[in-house]
Amino acid sequence: MENNSNVGEAEACMKELEDVSDSKFYHIFCIFNMLRKKHKEAKELLIRAIVNDNNLLMLNHPIYE
Predict the structure, then answer these.
(1) Residue 28 domain boundaries
(2) Is the pTM of this model over 0.85?
(3) How would you label 23-47 residue by residue, b for 16+ Cβ within 10 Å and e otherwise?
């Protein structure tokens, strides 16, 4: 009888560990997606900064003076 309760307790602990690890995996996945989105936004900002800088350089070109 005690052996069956130990098995049941072990199975309950195993299920709890699986739930915790699934939860951690989900959080890591969400963080990864957020970082990927931020990386994309940073690349877009860099491109806009380069374009704006080139536009400012063009304004200093002798043709426009």
Answers:
(1) 2-64
(2) no
(3) eeeeeeeeeeeeeeeeeeeeeeeee
